[in-house]
Design goal:
Elements lengths: L4 H16 L4 H16 L4 H7 L19 E6 L2 E6 L6 H4 L5 H10 L5 E5 L5 H10 L4 E5 L3 H13 L5 E4 L2 E2 L5 E6 L5 E4 L3 H6 L3 E6 L1 H4 L4 E6 L5 H6 L2 H7 L2 E7 H8 L3 H10 L2 E6 L6 E4 L1 H6 L7 E8 L1
Parallel strand pairs: 3-4, 3-10, 4-5, 6-9, 10-11
Antiparallel strand pairs: 1-2, 7-8, 7-9, 11-14, 12-13, 12-14
Helix pairs in contact: 1-2, 1-3, 2-3
Amino acid sequence: MFGGKKKESADVSSLISLIFGAVTPEQNHILHRVAHDALEHGRDPFRALIMNTDQQDLPSRIVARFGPDDIEWCEVDGLHLATDASEGSVSPQVASGYEPHVSRTLRSILRSGDTFVDVGANIGVHVADAARIVGERGRVIAVEPNSENCRLLLLTVDRNGLRNVTLVPAALSDDGEWTWFSTHIGSNGGVLTSDVEALTRGFGAVVPVRRLDDVAPERTRLIKIDVEGAEIPVLRSGLETIRRDRPSIIMEFSCEMVRRVSGIDPLDALSWIEGLGYGIAVIRKDDGQLLATTAEQLIETWKSPLNIEDLLLSPR
């Protein structure tokens, strides 16, 4: 397979058809580029096609699990982080610093002995950083429903000897015992409608649901939530923790995703958070500085429906 240029192109077309079925000319062009780039870099084009395609836009029932040859180790600030060489979302950013504005905020809050809960831990970049900060007397709870992400996270934990990390392989919500989960691009993913049609089509996986109150230990200092629009159900599942510990909360927020995934008006969502006694600040992506705001101000100045911001919610 993949002998000469013409045969290579034909083989890639066959591979695309096998994985995705019929695609548009534009999608076909993009997918060919992904496959040829993988071949040029000595990577598996099969996995590259799956790991670099938005599975909620162009879904496939094929799951691409990584093996020993797919793992790349990145050393960042003395930590050794396991990444997937074919993954097209988080792994390419790790070496240069993944979400540095979030890391800066996390480091400004956490101290030795603290407890940190990472909801939507992905491959564990912030988990490893936090585990080193809080030390042996501290605790890190990593919540992640994607089993491949969990594998990379556990490899990172093992390589760095982080004995203070607990993995919870589940989604968090205030409703139900399971949900339907699908990847987006690579390691990113989110919950989908759990109806009969979705279950029948099979573009996803059934994952268990836990409540934040069930996994957050007492005296939790900081919670990070990055769950692609399902942030409010996560918070609703942790009201006892929020009232008991008054933790700081780093939360990704998208008007489009919170409306689509959780069925909640963005202003209502942020106003509800303020009603819990929390102030809102935008974590600026360029320098990590905090820009204090209110629910109304933030929505009034929202750049576009697809804009995504990271917020720091601080107890008043």
